[in-house]
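[agent] plan:
  1. take the single chain provided in the ticket
  2. run structure prediction with default settings
  3. attach structure tokens to the ticket
  4. add a short note for the reviewer (M.T.)
[agent] executing step 1
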Amino acid sequence: MASTRKLALVSALLAAAAIGSPAVAQSAPSTRLIDCGEESCLLVTGHRERVSDEIRINGHLVDVQGQRTWRVRLPLATVREWSTPFARRIEVSSHPARARTDMARADTAEHARLPIGLLGHVPDLASLVITLD
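[agent] step 2 finished; step 3 output follows
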């Protein structure tokens, strides 16, 4: 009786692990600020299902490096041009190469968070006064 319960429990755990695995395989795209010579760039990394899929950032086709795991460097001026003011994230989408004529159709569209304050304005702070009561 106890061995039957153990067998049922192990079977249930294995089935749950098999079902949950594909979701772990793909992660959301990520961003990071890097040095690009004399200017700063945004490094965007992500995953795509097919190597032939095109990657678009905020609707703009980008030339990525890599296969299924890819990366692209974008100058900050380009990121500012493609984004709304004070944006906190960018849209990263993958499109099948065959769908070039239908740009509205995306296989996947995800959002990647931008580094804090990247597209915001930083006010000049002349002084800061702290008082304790």
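[agent] step 4 note for reviewer: Residues 2-25 form the longest helix (24 residues).
[agent] ticket updated
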